[in-house]
Please model this.
Amino acid sequence: MLNFISFKNPLDDSIAEFFKQQLDNEALIEWMTIISCFFVFYFVISAFFIINKRFRVVGIIMLITLVLTYLSNDLIFKNIFTRDRPFIEMGMATSPGFSIDGYSFPSGHSAISSAGTFSFFFYYLFFVKDKKGNKDMLIYSMIFLVFMLLIMLSRIVLLHHYFTDAIAGMVEGIIISLLVMLGYYLIKKYLIDKKKENKIEE
Model:
């Protein structure tokens, strides 16, 4: 479809070429392969939050954001831009790390890790009134951020994605997180207003 985004640019090419030269480093590839799978961590932690009363609301928001990001990335955006993965465009027979197919832009792993990170952070930023009493949420946000950056890096190192794929995935996750936050705000406002109306009628 719209493959105009698949144009070659010096930044993507130089970064991809640099990491292609590192593929002989087996330890690096093994570690990057492991880190690349960390995106599952966001689904696991959201499920853990849901069963924890204190974090239940943010857990539900996080899971909704993750699912919407996954669906929009794999079913919509990748099929719109149809950009080939770096290892394919570089003429490699197989992908480093583990087998992978599908299109490259935007990076799904980056989008999901970004969605998990920023949905949690935005909830803390916009909806937690007692920020001093909930400093652990800010610490969690920083931990999620580190995971996100490592996952983005791993996708680039393994030549599964170009640098711009990872950045686009991160932006996608941020935007969907903000949209879900807006939806939550509107629903919460509606319920509060409805409750006030009922009290007045009584």
